[in-house]
Amino acid sequence: MERKITMLSQRRWKIGFSVILWLSVFLFWGRFYPAHLSYQEQLQLFLFDTDYLIEHLIIPGGLAEYISEFLVQFYYHRWIGAAILATLFVVLQLLVWLLAQKHKAADVYYLLSFLPIISMWYFMTDENAMLAFAVSILFALGTMYLHVSLNSQWRRVLSVVLFAPLLYWFAGAAHFLFIGWAIICEAKLLYQNNKKLAIGGSIAALILMGLACPLISGLWLQYPIFRLMGGINFYRFPSYIPLTVFIVEALFLFFPFLISSLSPPKKNVHFAIILQSLVLIMSGYVLLSSGADMNKEEAMEYDWLVRNKEWQKIIEKAEAKSPTSPFGVTCLNLALGKTGQLGDRMFQFYQNGTEGLLPHFQRDFISPLPTSEVFYYLGMINTAQRFTFEAMEAIPNYNKSGRCFKRLAETNLINGQYEVAAKYISILRKTVFYKDWAEEAMTYLYNEKKISNHKEWGWLRKLRYADDFLFSDREIDMMLGLLYQHNYQNRMAFEYMLAYVLQERDLERFMKYYPLGKYAGYDHIPRSYQEALVYVWTQTHRNFDGMPWSISPDVAHEVTDFARIYMSQQNSQPILHTQYGDTFWYYLLFKKK
Known about the structure:
Structural class: mainly alpha
Low-confidence stretches: 1-5
Radius of gyration: 31 Å
Number of strands: 0
Mean pLDDT: 92
């Protein structure tokens, strides 16, 4: 009876630590690093389609990639994505422990089976690390467990001959993990049986078996040998395989043997467990704090909020901590524009010039997306479509994007390009999370009246340019001016036009464009415009008498105080930053171009 109770208590503490691991991973990805999950989801398009499955099965590691993309589509809901990762990590940890137990590991060293998982966790904090790597490792560990469970040497030899090529085709280069496991196991067994002369031959045969799989497949697959050897789909960039991939694989290979080689302590068992816990906590903290890029997480979070039209949440986030990257500032300014606050509040937040309004196009797969969102909501539908398409086509591993497909369908619906829109919508109907939207969008095809009555698409149809012309990203203010003059209801275009020239410090153009605001229906002059107007006035007048604009007394008083401090203090910037850092005047005089 006592022995049963002891075994039960041992099982409970091990289960308890695995539950802690699950909760830690779940909270990390769901609470502290969720935008990286959304980022992964938007850079793929999983289809329930036979052709899509076949496209994956005809390449090494394709099945693991297919399964991983199936799982990643659920990152659309970030807490589900966090639960998927937590479950996958715990399964990997349990497999490491089962492999260690097959070599008589002592229960007291159970926590050491967590260390390879922490290395995997560290690797997955890289936004370009693919879930296919973790799934491939899972396949390899499962095959290793099957191999070590076979009692007969001939069965194990046969399993290597059978499993190695299958594992390579299903899980890619992770088959080297299985080959390494078989080498160590067989060498260890031959050594124990005093067959030392056979060790070298066995190792050579297994190495040749491992190398033969990628080399033979390379005869008909158009992939570089280094990718066939290192993994086709473990990392987003095809031309690069991080060293971390090989380190993580090595840890998963050697730790079961390392754990099993440790002798159980004769006393102070609790101390050994506490010491392992401290090692786990410290190594986890060091690796995750160095691997997790919170600046990228912040930018991705802003992009996710834009994607979901959470304008007020964007502003609240910026009020807590103003974004400083062009990516984040672009999202913030869009939120201010969509809520009608851009003219009043833009200088209350950090501004990095026009790159935070409408950044120039860059040949990558991320930065054009928030810019395309701005163009879309301004009514520059063709430009938004171009940026979205270019972003999708620049995805390094040649994936398509559910987010981009949806936006391309919308832009073509707005433009009346129904055949093109139908192409995108029909593909989205084969997905899980875009299917309902696609079914609804199908009802808008060739239905001009229904599109015109759509709250968003109908409005954007009214705003878009009526005439064809060459778009110039060097004359954005003029492009915005043409857009506004096409439809004076487009107040956002007017605010972006004035914001653009103000952030360019072009007060001459500001004074030229400002009178167009009479068509915008303002009930007051926005704060930043007042600050620009009163600054222009004070350059040629000693007082405010005769000023033709309704300037707030507070603004008039503040510009006087600003000028007094600026003129009287030798080093006035720190004082002015404290008191007037959220004004156009401070931006004009002190912010670097």
